Batch of 2 targets.
Target 1
Amino acid sequence: MIGNYVGALKNWVELQAAYESFFLVADLHAITVPQDPVDLQRRSLEFAALLLACGIDSGKSTIFLQSQVPAHLQLLWVINCVTSMGELQRMTQFKDKKDRSAGSIHVGLFDYPALMAADILLYRTDLVPAGEDQEQHIEFARRIARKFNGRYGEIFRIPESYTPRTGARMMGLQTPTTKMSKSDRNADNYVALLDPPDAIYRKIKTAVTDSGSEIRCDASKPGIPNLITLYAAVSGEEVSSVENRYVGKGYAEFKRNLAELIIDFLRPIQARYAMIAADPAMLTEVLQSGARNARERSERTLSRVYRAVGFLPGEGDHRRRTGGWRSGSERQSDIALPSKTKALHDRRSIMETNETKDVTAAAAAETDAEAECMTDCCVCCCCDTEEECSMEE
Ligand code: AMP
């Protein structure tokens, strides 16, 4: 819907020129509320097609279905194990949904921010372009990343949120005091990107305005400022220039022009969507190739995480190569641990038993160096692949 476009998608399209970008259709998140299976399949493809129609370029960016990249769920578990219940209970979106859910609330909905943190952190993300409603979840991802890094070494990059200046929080057309949402039961509360022109005219015409007649962003009134923001975000103009153009003009003319603006804006998107929807083989190929790339990239981070927490590599797991086993006797263990894992283990045991003061500076430095190295083993911070990387360990 149009709120998603101005709050997030517009920035996604623009940022892909400057950043390597990953866009996922969040089908795992979708089932945090009940979904009809056939409908979920249809809507997942519809979403992917809409991303392409809006200008996401599959040649530049990676587009994939979240459920096709297992690392998201694997990292989720690790994140769950460093997240307290209280942190998730404080999330505003969870509290809102819980209050509206007549008693039955699922663990998945509660855990939603942890999965979102996995979505973000797996790709060593710098920027998360999103609407204002996601800021608290992005802050949670930052906090988890710091907490994990503090405990296990510098594995995660700390992401920044990126919200648009205009339209970061579009409000409902009929209820301008609540956020515009695609899951609203009242479809007149939003303009869907695939709405036909007559529906757009009707929705904008019946959108709630305020008492008075001025077309101006008066902070005490919810309706007209929301429509002005929508106008400015879609046209790319400043809010003030929209206000100036409509000085002395009436709501009816303003709403008619806004409807026309949105219809003209959506026309090419809808035409591209029709072409993409008519070629399901192409869409499948885009999503399969996106999932391949996303799997490759996410598993790289996941393997660093797994090594850091102390999971041993499985058979054929080339990315979780441990760099050999230490010979000789190991402290508190009959079985030799891989050297890097042991370095961190030793360091943590020292901290936990409060014996740090007894360790000589030289021994501490040696342990630190080894633990630090562990975060970049297999692929160092400068290389993208093991093949490129000349580091032995
Ligand atoms: P969702 O609809 O929750 O899947 O959100 C997809 C993206 O659109 C996220 O980045 C949201 O922050 C953004 N978004 C959702 N609703 C709005 C809204 N009413 N105004 C601005 N951005 C929004």
Target 2
Amino acid sequence: MRAGARCFTHDRGRVTAAKVRGMMKAMHTTAELTRARDLVAGATRIVAMTGAGISTESGIPDFRGPNGVWTNNPAAQRMFTLQSYVSDPEVRVQSWQLRSRHAAWSAEPNPAHHALVELERDGRLAAIITQNIDRLHQRAGSDPGLVIELHGTMFETVCLSCADRREMRETLDRVEAGEADPACLDCGGILKSATISFGQALNADVLQRGRDAARSCDLMLVAGSSLTVHPAAGLVGQAADAGADVLVCNASATPYDDLAAAVLREPLSEMLPALL
Ligand code: NAD
């Protein structure tokens, strides 16, 4: 046998390089999880920064994960750009169809959302800054007053001309009754979901709440975000600059991993409950 090609234990059969790598990964994960648990246990003012990845296990695809909407269809990005939406009626027609069959209408919160509710009951969660538009945090039982929806909500519409806001359901009823691109009932302007598209400014007050929360926490817990969308992602750096520890729980690498005190890559529905 070639030296070094294989190794054997006394009584458990062959140990392959893949198994060794697996064992080392498990040891690394255990050490990292211990570090992460210590961070959570030692914190008194935790702010969670959540992204689309916390809802994938509820059946809502993210944008940039392995099964993400854009990973599978890069052209879909156009649907989420304000300029395309305003200038191209066909983009609006397709957007209304997407909204009508969006997975969030039937999705249920998963154990990761529930873990944040537990943390809140424990008195240590100061806020959830979410980039999500699916309201699953509130549905899981998080105090709506603690949820900062940086990118708005898909459950309301807004008129781009007069800012009239209504329940999304009301407008989808019009779509289902045959209006392919329903206009504002007050002024005839273009209607859109009350979400932030690329190229659209965030609500200044909501962003300020996010900044205040980020700058006053002692632990910034990132859950399920690629941290590539700004200004949301920048709040993690602001928390770190203000002295908070950063804990990143995300399946793939983020630009903020290097400043994190711990990084967990496993599925959030397992990792967040394991942190408590
Ligand atoms: P993103 O798609 O850029 O990144 C999601 C990240 O989550 C990826 O890095 C992926 O590896 C990770 N991930 C996916 N499933 C995971 C799991 N089960 N466990 C651990 N990690 C997991 O999403 P983003 O950073 O939130 O930014 C994209 C934008 O998309 C946001 O502005 C958001 O408004 C919008 N969005 C929201 C929803 C939603 O509301 N559920 C869904 C899609 C997109």
